[in-house]
Amino acid sequence: MRSIGLYLHIPFCRRKCLYCDFCSFPGRTGDYQRYLEALKQELRLRWNPQWQVATIYIGGGTPTVLPPSALAELLREIKTVARVQPQAEVTVEANPGTIDGPGLAQLRAAGVNRLSVGAQSGDDRFLKILGRIHTTADVESTVALARRAGFTNINLDLIYGLPGETLDDWQQTLRWAIALAPDHLSCYGLQVEPGTPLQSMVREGRVRLPTDDEVSAMFMANTRILPAAGYKQYEISNFARRPRAGEAASGDYRCRHNLIYWRYQDYLGLGLAAVSTVAGHRWVNLDNLEAYLSAVAAGTEPTGMVEPLTPRQAMAEMLILGFRLTTGPDPEAFASRWGVSLAQVLGERVQPLLDGGFLREAAGTYRLTPRGMLVSNQVLTKLLAPLL
Ligand code: SF4
């Protein structure tokens, strides 16, 4: 049996946010039903009885623009077609303002045991600049309703480095988020993606981005403020809360689905533009909605591109992802996959990075220090030069 993570992409949103280059369309409510049927059909086409599902992640887009009953039905179908582990982590991304209390209760009853809420900022000024459809009050009420519906594992997604944002503003967002007592926090730096309205706003000087130094200070604030509030950093941008007094010490709120990516394990992506990597094979689904729907309706796998992965590329990817984790790449998993040790592959390039305080050595592997995380691209470019 091969354990996999299952990702399902819902490419619909109420409105397009100004910074977004994800595969998502505003409106198109008329396509919802056809798309859901196609997702179920794609699962039937691709499913291999040698697999078992360890995690399910329904992301987007905004999955919660779909009726909760449709998401529940999708989960039922997955469990009918696929072998899903009884303790599987089942996450749904929810955007505030798109789901109410009864809807959340319906998701919980359907087996969703982790809710990832797209909060983004604790300041309504920035939500407006980003073109989000919701306010901070909507985030607060979604979290409260989710707790009432029985969710005990809630993530908040946040973005720092927003136009006009100061270090104080960001720290205020962190404090606001902590007060909502989520079980997990994802804090990503804003990326200005080509072709987005935000890029034009920046280019035309209509908004001003924080400097690199200011953004670095915001990142460092994450590594200081969140651990002090009981959240352990386990990945460059991700923090999971430690068990509280009286709670089982085994409580682990790290995102098991994302750990599959960072550990370079197998995942199957279903839906528009979804990526899969299984047993060293990588493919990307079609990203045109009509082409995707037609391919699946014709009973063919909707593969848009097969990405050949040389062993060298795969080894580099495994290390790049592994270094995102605060524990570093797993030396045993690495050696058993490639038949060489981590130390052999990294060679003499490690020492200057250890000396410079960018890496540290622990438990038979290497880890980025906070300083190394700030400039992780440069550190990894040096470290993995022969593989890139
Ligand atoms: S809600 Fe998310 S996926 Fe949808 S437009 Fe906004 S950022 Fe993009």
UniProtKB/TrEMBL annotation:
- Location relative to the cell: Cytoplasm
- Domain of life, source organism: Bacteria
Under the heading SMART domains, the entry gives: Elp3
Report whether Metal-binding shows up as a keyword of the record.
yes
This protein's GO CC annotations: cytoplasm
UniProt keyword terms in alphabetical order: 4Fe-4S, Chaperone, Cytoplasm, Heme, Iron, Iron-sulfur, Metal-binding, S-adenosyl-L-methionine
Please indicate if the UniProt record lists 4Fe-4S as a keyword.
yes
Residues annotated as domain Radical SAM core: 1-235
What are the recorded Gene Ontology BP terms? porphyrin-containing compound biosynthetic process
Give the GO molecular function terms.
Answer: 4 iron, 4 sulfur cluster binding; coproporphyrinogen oxidase activity; metal ion binding
**Entry-linked PROSITE patterns:** RADICAL_SAM (PS51918)
Task: State the PANTHER family in the record.
Answer: COPROPORPHYRINIGEN III OXIDASE, RADICAL S-ADENOSYL METHIONINE DOMAIN-CONTAINING PROTEIN 1, MITOCHONDRIAL
Q: Which family does it belong to?
A: Belongs to the anaerobic coproporphyrinogen-III oxidase family. HemW subfamily.
Q: What does this protein do?
A: Probably acts as a heme chaperone, transferring heme to an unknown acceptor. Binds one molecule of heme per monomer, possibly covalently. Binds 1 [4Fe-4S] cluster. The cluster is coordinated with 3 cysteines and an exchangeable S-adenosyl-L-methionine.
Name of the protein in its database record = Heme chaperone HemW
The source organism is Capillibacterium thermochitinicola
